[in-house]
From TrEMBL:
GO molecular function: DNA-binding transcription factor activity; sequence-specific DNA binding
InterPro entries, A to Z: AraC-bd (IPR003313), Homeodomain-like_sf (IPR009057), HTH-like (IPR037923), HTH_AraC (IPR018060), RmlC-like_jellyroll (IPR014710), Tscrpt_reg_AraC-type_HTH (IPR020449)
Provenance organism: Bacillus taeanensis
Domain HTH araC/xylS-type: residue ranges: 182-280
Alphabetized UniProt keyword annotations: DNA-binding, Transcription, Transcription regulation
Protein name: AraC family transcriptional regulator
Range of residues in the leader sequence: none
């Protein structure tokens, strides 16, 4: 038997006396992942996604990733993300929402900086990460006595373990074209609920509609109009899941006065009408 001693004093990873708090945890199979979860972000919540099986395409911030089994996806608070699974691979994931995370040198509820990749390859850490998530999920889903306290310790262990994984640098291009695309995207993200058209965007940035579409699509993978639709539908998905508002009211909140047109766009983007989508997520 070999005995090892803890030789160093504890130096907490978390600042300001904050203790990370687990808000929710989901074990999501392909019944749900096969449906695109279009562009959305979270206020005051950071999400950690662990891909158990399958692969997909994810947009996080300004970056596009081909994701696969064993990947850890970090959605910092306030960072836009778009999720699209490869339906042939039956993607399944653990997803947990966390708040009160404060690491040295990073904003609150940020686990990685914008200079690093938002996707980490778990490699040798995969088994331990999945085990921690499985324990937390069983504790919460089975409403076991002391589950909240246990998960308080386990979520800290999970974050500390993730911080041990080497992070890849992500160098951003500062070309004139990338700056222009970033400015267009920021403008759309601020005003996507308003009546934006290609004409008003081209006037705002003093370029032709053709050039604007070309620059924006090369950077994001979407035309400006496609991007606006996905932002609106993503917001509608969040409202369908998290509120009791009527579908008509939600349509109006995301910029569509015509409920039929909204339903058509939603069905085309997500793969089912809004009423069925709400039932899928809220009836269990």
């Amino acid at each position: 038997m070999t005995q090892y001693f803890v030789e160093k004093d504890l130096k907490p990873s978390f600042e300001n006396g904050l203790i990370p708090k687990l808000l929710y945890i989901c074990n999501v199979d392909d019944t749900y992942t096969r449906l695109p979860r279009t562009m959305h972000m979270h206020d005051d919540v950071m999400e950690i996604i662990f891909i158990k099986e399958g692969n997909g395409l994810h947009m996080i911030g300004d970056r596009h990733y081909k994701t696969r089994k064993g990947d850890i996806l970090i959605y910092n608070t306030g960072v836009l993300h778009d999720e699209y699974a490869n339906t042939d691979t039956k993607m399944s994931v653990f997803c947990c929402g966390v708040t009160d995370v404060k690491l040295t040198g990073l904003p609150r509820n940020h686990l990685v900086s914008k200079e690093h990749s938002y996707v980490l390859h778990s490699g040798e850490y995969a088994r331990d990460i999945e085990s921690l998530l499985e324990i937390m999920y069983s504790q919460i889903s089975e409403e076991k006595h002391g589950a909240e306290e246990m998960c308080s310790y386990l979520i800290r262990a999970l974050i500390t373990l993730i911080l041990q994984i080497p992070q890849e640098n992500f160098m951003l291009s500062e070309s004139e074209e990338s700056v222009l695309s970033s400015n267009i995207k920021s403008y759309i993200d601020e005003y996507y609920l308003e009546d934006l058209t290609l004409d008003c965007l081209s006037k705002r940035f003093h370029i032709s509609s053709y050039h604007l579409v070309h620059v924006f699509k090369r950077s994001t993978g979407f035309s400006p109009i496609q991007y606006i639709i996905r932002r609106r539908i993503g917001e509608a998905q969040s409202l369908l899941i998290n509120t009791n508002d009527s579908i008509t009211k939600i349509a109006g909140r995301v910029g569509y006065d015509n409920i039929s047109y909204f339903t058509t766009l939603f069905s085309k983007t997500v793969g089912m009408p809004p009423k069925k989508y709400r039932q899928l997520w809220t009836e269990k």
